Task: inverse folding
């Protein structure tokens, strides 16, 4: 009889421990799921890099700003 | 097609270092790195000259020739840029550059150099134009905004010229014709394999 009680007590302890681990696992999973959109959001502003053609494209334009620079440098 | 160049008129440079400050401020260049600096030759002696020096965006860039990971590229308007995501910080470009332009942030232990940093002609790098990511890695992209490098635009004595090589060479020639021959356009023969003769 005593052996029976002892075995039942052991079983409860194991179940409690596993329950704790299960709760921990669930909480961890929930935290990861909650964090995933945050990570995605943090990465979202990083736009794609330029393609090889875009990288070497000419960007210089002789705007009014640039023309004013050339004009004032002639003084 | 316009070919971007720098020209430092050393007869006008007064060593005020405004170009250095403007560059650091515009591009938020970190401590320990100067993309542009002023060098004085024969300091305190007759014939003293000051030259504002940065990456000259060479025609046949030696830094690109020696880079083991091919992180350099030249744009259609002849601006030499590099991709920091590819750079391994080996330092070969520093040894190859005749102007000492490549700079390294010296991050980490055991002599690690970190990613190379240099003048981008205010044209930033391979990230999307004028994006936050581009600014964080390379600094301002004034060329995409229709402007010129701030170092040249800030120069109070108009010693530092930037822009279309043909136009700035003609401006320099006009000056030389008016005042007589001076010290020459320092670095042009090295960088662009040509001289500016009036």
Result:
């Amino acid at each position: 009889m005593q052996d029976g009680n002892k075995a039942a007590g052991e079983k409860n302890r194991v179940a409690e421990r596993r329950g704790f681990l299960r709760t921990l696992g669930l909480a961890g999973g929930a935290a990861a799921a909650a964090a995933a959109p945050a990570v995605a959001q943090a990465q979202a502003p990083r736009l794609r890099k330029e393609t090889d053609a875009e990288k070497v494209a000419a960007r210089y334009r002789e705007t009014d700003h640039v023309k004013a620079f050339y004009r004032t440098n002639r003084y | 097609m316009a070919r971007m160049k720098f020209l430092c008129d050393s007869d006008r440079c007064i060593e005020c270092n405004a170009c250095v400050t403007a560059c650091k401020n515009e591009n938020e260049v970190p401590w320990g790195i100067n993309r542009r600096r002023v060098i004085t030759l024969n300091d305190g002696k007759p014939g003293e000259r000051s030259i504002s020096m940065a990456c000259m965006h060479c025609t046949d860039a030696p830094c690109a020739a020696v880079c083991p990971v091919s992180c350099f590229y030249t744009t259609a308007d002849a601006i030499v840029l590099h991709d920091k995501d590819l750079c391994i910080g080996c330092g070969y470009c520093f040894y190859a550059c005749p102007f000492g332009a490549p700079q390294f942030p010296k991050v980490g232990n055991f002599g690690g150099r970190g990613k190379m940093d240099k003048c981008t002609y205010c044209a930033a790098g391979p990230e999307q134009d004028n994006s936050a990511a581009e600014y964080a890695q390379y600094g301002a992209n004034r060329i995409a905004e229709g402007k010129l490098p701030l170092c040249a635009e800030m120069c109070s004595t108009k010693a530092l010229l930037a822009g279309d090589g043909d136009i700035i060479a003609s401006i320099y020639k006009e000056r030389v014709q008016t005042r007589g021959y001076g010290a020459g356009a320092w670095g042009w023969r090295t960088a662009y394999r040509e001289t500016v003769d009036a």
Remarks:
- Chain B touches chain A at residues 1-2, 4, 73-77, 81, 85, 123, 126-129, 131-133, 141, 143-144, 146-148, 152-153, 158, 161, 163-164, 167-168, 171, 174 (CB under 8 Å).
